[in-house]
Design goal:
The structure holds two protein chains of two kinds. By secondary structure, chain A is mainly β. Chain A has a three-stranded antiparallel beta sheet. In chain A, a hairpin with a 4-residue loop joins strand 5 and strand 6. Chain A is elongated. Chain B is α/β, with parallel strands linked by helices. Chain B is built from 17 helices and 20 strands. In chain B, helix 5 crosses helix 16 and helix 14 runs parallel beside helix 16. Chain B is globular. The chains are: A mainly beta, B alpha/beta. At the A-B interface, strand 5, strand 6, strand 7 and strand 8 of A face helix 1, helix 3, helix 4, helix 10 and helix 11 of B. Strand 8 of chain A pairs antiparallel with strand 20 of chain B, so a sheet runs across the interface.
């Protein structure tokens, strides 16, 4: 269900061009507005729809199997940390609004900067542990699971 | 050509493609290499790139060890039976023992993970799956990778790895081009962690025309993980193990939450249970070790996914299709109904659009299911990818050569789709593999293994010429014809892709032939592939965007060629429901209880195939799963 861009809403800002994972949102050189240059490489992922500051981009179901007359619209708000959807059926019988959180923290605030954390010890380097481990990897205070700790062997051939 | 050459030198760790695997690599590399130079090259924008660009509604790989739920070896056993025994259990165990740490990091970074209000544990969808509000899964993870990386090159499509000229079989970086400016980018690096993607769109999709992008795995997953590594001569494993998905028809919306959480089930067109009647004959094909409904019922051992596909395929062929997902019961509960819709909006919006367009309300109508075209990848429920070293403390000697997740090319590491034999990693496991690869890559550098790398200008210039050749071909020949896309001197990337897909479908077991192939078909297919390979030397690109498509096609081609060789080599039907070898319709543990390993000689393009021993974790017999799962 490829995307399309409403002529009167697009101002050619290029946010959709910047974000599209498939590189199919391009600016039309004459009209100075965005459009989908390759609908058959569109995954209907809505990345561009969500990124558009003017709600200028919408989706019309793939012509090979989706009849006209439906609507799935979205507003993603990083400040509120929410995403709001509205789904309208072709026959008008269903009109749903759905809201979901997209993050639990102020946007971008909670990711660590690993250049600033204490450097790993030599012992840790020589172990199989990763950053922040063994935190979270088991319920007791033990270390990383190994074949030995879990009473396992690794053997060749059909073993079951 | 007037494109600039931009050289980024003295890189320690180059992350080639930053989906979940690549972002994991970039993130973790900063911890083990606080003074190292870490660079990401990504053909899209890392905030929305890779298979998770759209978001996810579940994390499919989480042990819950700290809540007393599962141990790593339990997950290995699950992946083993699902893949009919063919798993690198050392890698799978290693991923599983670290993955919980990854998931808890995600939660700390702001990813909304649902909780079970009674137990306080993460809310389970199934034994391994937890439920999330993951619309922003990728941007949240990308923020972490961005903080760790010195530089992020968005919109740079890597086409080739650079190879060291002072020591054979050692990586030296990568090259590619910027899909906006067209500039040529050279990354000279001591190590490369390949986080590029698996392959959609190599088999003819069921969708046609405008809908051709409606594939299960992202259309931008162009098999570049394999294209890059195969071209450089890395050994690959299990490339025959393509996956076919039973999903909601046309939209390919996910079924996991429906089966596991909403407790929906399938039936044939006439409202009958159909699965069990196909099992006795199927048991004759695969043996009791792999299909024993009684044992599965008693011990919660899953029935392998391919075998469930087999039942769908056969029921439909018997004239009792379509298969329906029975949603009408579950959807009477408004809470479950809402979850059903959120599930699509969080990861496959297209399915919601399709049901809105066709007025399918699952509360009043049981939607259709279908089996998809095959996909080749290594992070979801299958294990195609590079033959990699495992960790020292787990791996047997045949699986260990010094550095965890290092391929058979020195300094070249893999994560996610790139690593073979590690199915059921999914998003969290791929990120975890990236972390493991990053730690190992830092160690490789600190051990002095990357000293004295030499890359000549000749190599750099040769690659540059190769990369831009499709533009040159277009420039030289396009004016020979009046207009249009028909030209006797070249094909465009779309035409090449169409030919590849048709060839894969008809000769390598696509949906169009009910997933059936045999030695004769495969040999004919390989002959045609070789000629397609010649024609791809004449692929033409009218602009930089088409140049991107041309290189994606070349990566898809290399992936497909490898799939052909592997499928021909494994003379048995190991995964009925994924594909069938008509000339060897039985599973054959006598001869094929092994992993398949291939290498394409970079100089001659010739393939050599070998069998690698298959090891299994034994001991500590499977306990019954905890209550409520």
């Amino acid at each position: 269900m490829p995307t399309f861009v409403y002529m009167t809403r697009c101002d050619g800002c290029g946010e959709c061009v910047d974000i599209c994972p498939s590189d199919i949102m391009h600016i039309d050189k004459k009209l100075r507005r965005a459009y989908n240059i390759e609908p058959n490489m569109c995954w209907e992922c809505y990345s561009c729809v969500k990124a558009c500051p003017h709600q200028a981009i919408d989706v019309r179901g793939y012509a090979d199997f989706a009849p006209l007359g439906h609507s799935v619209r979205v507003i993603r708000d990083e400040e509120k940390g929410t995403i709001a959807w509205r789904i309208k059926f072709r026959n008008g019988k269903k009109d749903m609004e759905l809201l979901a959180p997209i993050t639990t923290k102020p946007w971008g605030s909670a990711t660590p900067n690993l250049a600033d954390v204490p450097a790993p010890s030599k012992e840790m380097r020589n172990s199989e542990l990763l950053f922040n481990e063994p935190k979270y990897i088991r319920m007791d205070n033990g270390g990383l699971h190994t074949l030995e700790s879990n009473g396992l062997e690794i053997k060749e051939g059909v073993q079951y | 050509m007037s494109y600039q050459t931009i050289i980024e030198d003295d890189i320690d760790i180059l992350v080639a493609g930053a989906g979940l695997g690549g972002t994991g690599a970039a993130f973790e590399a900063r911890y083990w290499g606080q003074n190292k130079k870490i660079v990401i090259a990504e053909k899209a924008n890392i905030m929305r790139s890779g298979a998770v660009a759209q978001g996810l509604y579940a994390i499919n790989c989480y042990m819950g060890t700290r809540f007393g739920e599962n141990n790593p070896e339990d997950h290995v056993r699950y992946a083993r039976i699902d893949l009919m025994g063919m798993v690198r259990e050392d890698l799978a165990f290693d991923m599983a023992r670290h993955v919980d740490s990854t998931v808890h990091n995600f939660e700390e970074w702001g990813l909304p993970i649902m909780r079970n209000e009674k137990s306080g544990a993460f809310l389970r969808e199934g034994r391994w799956q937890i439920m999330i509000h993951g619309e922003s899964y990728k941007p949240i993870v990308a923020e972490a990778a961005k903080k760790s990386a010195d530089k992020v090159f968005n919109r740079v499509c890597l086409t080739h790895l650079l190879m060291d000229e002072s020591k054979e079989n050692r990586v030296a970086g990568a090259v590619g081009f910027n899909v906006r400016t067209g500039n040529y980018h050279v990354f000279k690096s001591k190590t490369v962690i390949c986080g590029a993607g698996g392959a959609s769109n190599i088999f003819k999709p069921r969708s046609v025309g405008e809908g051709a992008g409606r594939v299960w795995y992202a259309p931008w997953s162009s098999g570049s993980a394999y294209g890059l590594m195969i071209e450089a001569g890395a050994k690959m494993t299990q490339m025959e193990n393509r996956i076919v998905l039973a999903r909601f028809k046309d939209g390919y919306g996910p079924v996991g939450a429906y089966f596991l959480h909403l407790k929906t089930y399938t039936q044939n067109a006439y409202g009958e249970e159909y699965e069990s009647k196909w099992f006795p004959a199927l048991q004759q094909m695969v043996g009791k070790e792999y299909l024993d409904p009684e044992v599965s019922h008693r011990t919660h051992r899953p029935i392998p996914t391919c075998l469930r596909n087999h039942a769908i395929i056969n029921e439909v062929n018997a004239g009792r299709g379509p298969i329906h997902m029975v949603t009408m019961e579950a959807f009477q509960d408004p809470h479950l109904e809402e979850i059903g819709w959120h599930n699509f909006l969080g990861m496959t919006v297209g399915q919601a659009v399709l049901w809105a367009a066709t007025d399918v309300d699952p509360k009043y109508e049981n939607p259709e299911l279908t089996t998809s075209e095959p996909y080749v990848m290594g992070s979801h429920a299958t294990g195609c990818g590079a033959w990699c070293s495992g960790p020292q403390d787990v791996s047997p000697p045949e699986y260990y050569w010094g550095y965890n997740r290092m391929t058979t090319i020195e300094g070249l590491f893999g994560a996610g789709d790139a690593v073979g034999g590690t199915p059921h990693a999914f998003s969290s496991g791929s990120f975890t593999e990236g972390r493991l690869a990053a730690k190992a890559a830092c160690k490789y550098i600190d051990d002095g293994k990357a000293e004295g790398i030499r890359v000549s200008d000749a190599q750099i210039n040769r690659r540059k010429e190769q990369i831009y050749k499709p533009l040159e071909t277009y420039r030289v020949y396009s004016n020979e014809v009046v207009a249009g896309t028909v030209n006797p001197n070249f094909i465009n990337p779309r035409q090449g892709l169409d030919r590849l897909q048709k060839l894969m479908d008809e000769y390598c077991g696509g949906f169009g032939v009910n997933y059936m192939t045999n030695d004769k078909l495969l040999n004919i297919g390989l002959k045609k592939m070789s000629i397609l390979g010649e024609d791809l030397e004449k692929v033409a690109a009218s602009d930089i965007h088409e140049l991107l498509r041309a290189w994606e096609l070349k990566h898809r081609f290399l992936t497909s060629e490898s799939v052909f060789h592997h499928t021909l080599f494994r003379k048995e039907t190991r995964w009925p429901g994924y594909y069938y070898r008509g000339d060897a319709m039985k599973l054959d543990d006598q001869n094929w209880h092994v992993l398949t390993v291939s290498r394409r000689d970079p100089k001659t393009g010739e393939y050599t195939m070998e069998k690698a021993p298959l090891y299994h974790l034994v001991g500590d017999a499977e306990k019954a799963p905890p209550e409520g799962h």
